[in-house]
Amino acid sequence: MSVDWKLYEQDIIRWYLDDDMTAKETLKRLNDTHHLSVTQFKSKFGGLKNLRSDEWIAVIHEIRKREARGTASVVYLHGKRLKLDSTVRAVRRYSKNCQSEATEIGYYNPIQPFIATAFLIIG
């Protein structure tokens, strides 16, 4: 049976991203709320919390350009700020691929990762 994801997409995104539920917890909530049991969740929504390696390479390239201008960066994915330790770990992991692949990619997808200027709030 084919699932019309549009009917459930808003709830799934709220639970999976905003409430930071795991895929398993989100599927249980989907079943409890809408009496829907699905198996295609990972293929449809699995990439919402993580960037692919080619996306990280593009992000690292952008971060380096901003650093060269003296601008600190924070990375957002789907409107949520990524944790600093996760970002540092990903930069360390994918930096070795940046030299050759960053110029080959040649794009920055404004819909996926969002890089903003870091700022400090003193209150």
Q: What would you report as the Rg, rounded to the nearest angstrom?
A: 17 Å
**Strand/helix succession:** HHHHEEHE
Average pLDDT, rounded to a whole number, is 78
Give the strand order, joined by hyphens, for the main sheet.
2-1-3
Tally of structural domains: 2
Helix content: 40-55%
| Count of individual helical segments | 5
Number of strands: 3
Q: Which residues form runs of ≥5 with pLDDT under 50? A: 100-111, 119-123
Span of the ends, CA to CA = 54 Å
Q: Structural class, from secondary structure content?
A: mainly alpha
- Biggest sheet details: 3 strands, antiparallel
What would you call the shape? elongated
Strand content: 5-15%
Protein name: Clr5 domain-containing protein
InterPro entries: Clr5_dom (IPR025676)
Organism: Cylindrodendrum hubeiense
Pfam families: Clr5
Write the layout of secondary structure elements.
Layout (H helix, E strand, L loop, with lengths): L8 H10 L4 H12 L6 H5 L7 H16 L4 E5 L2 E2 L2 H22 L7 E5 L6
Antiparallel strand pairs: 1-2, 1-3
InterPro entries: Clr5_dom
Organism: Cylindrodendrum hubeiense
Pfam families: Clr5 (PF14420)
Any overview of this molecule?
Pfam families: Clr5. This is Clr5 domain-containing protein. Residues 2-45 form the Clr5 domain. With 123 residues, the chain is mostly helical. It folds into 2 domains: 5-46; 53-117, no CATH class. It has 5 helices and 3 strands; from the N terminus they run H-H-H-H-E-E-H-E. It has helices spanning 9-18, 23-34, 41-45, 53-68, 84-105, and strands at 73-77, 80-81, 113-117. Strands 2-1-3 form a 3-stranded antiparallel β-sheet, with helices on one face. Strand 1 and strand 2 form a beta hairpin. Helix 1 (9-18) packs antiparallel against helix 2 and helix 4 packs across helix 5 (84-105). The longest helix has 22 residues, at 84-105. 13% of the residues are buried. Residues 100-111 and 119-123 have low confidence and may be disordered.
